[in-house]
């Protein structure tokens, strides 16, 4: 899996800094905010891969943050909580949290829980794998194989590739990609799509001028198809 983007909503500076530095070492891209409102707008604009939500926040009740988050996103949410907080844990799970971790926890423990949650949400979304030429895309495990070799791929690139694979052979418009892959996140444009496509091309060892899998159709969109030879 490439670098996963994690939004940490946590008012304790100490815990935020600990999570930022330790999760970065485990190859996560961490963005920490101290307030619920800030967390919500960050999730809306950046569409992270996973959210860590502290239930005790100064500006809003963590459960209210979760409730609002669920009206706009299906992103996996791990709730972090103090001990002896069974009532809130049960309520958080009822409100759509995917899992919880009790403080204090190690970064390794958190890493394992994040991966378990992502695996489950991946299975919920897709259990079909795609094979296009020598490219294999496995949504449940978030892996891409090219000629049998695993590609290092970032989550957003993965979603883009998986969506194109699902619709292989058809030209998919950029607006459709912005809606389906970026969930219409604020600030996403055709340029964002182009940048991710060029990263994908690099990983697949091809260029826009000499495409093999990814074929851009000017003014229309992009098509994923099996190379001609
Ligand atoms: Ca707190």
Query: For the largest beta sheet, what order do the strands appear in spatially?
Result: 2-1-3-4-5
Alpha-carbon distance between the two ends: 29 Å
By CATH reckoning, the class of the largest domain would read Alpha Beta
Question: What is bound: which ligands?
Answer: calcium ion
Strand elements, count: 12
Given helix and strand content, the structural type is alpha/beta
Residues in helix, %: 40-55%
User: What's the architecture of the largest domain in CATH terms?
Assistant: 3-Layer(aba) Sandwich
Radius of gyration computed on alpha carbons: 19 Å
List the total number of helices. 8
> Which stretches are low in confidence, meaning pLDDT under 50 for 5 or more residues running?
none
User: Could you name the CATH topology of the largest domain?
Assistant: Rossmann fold
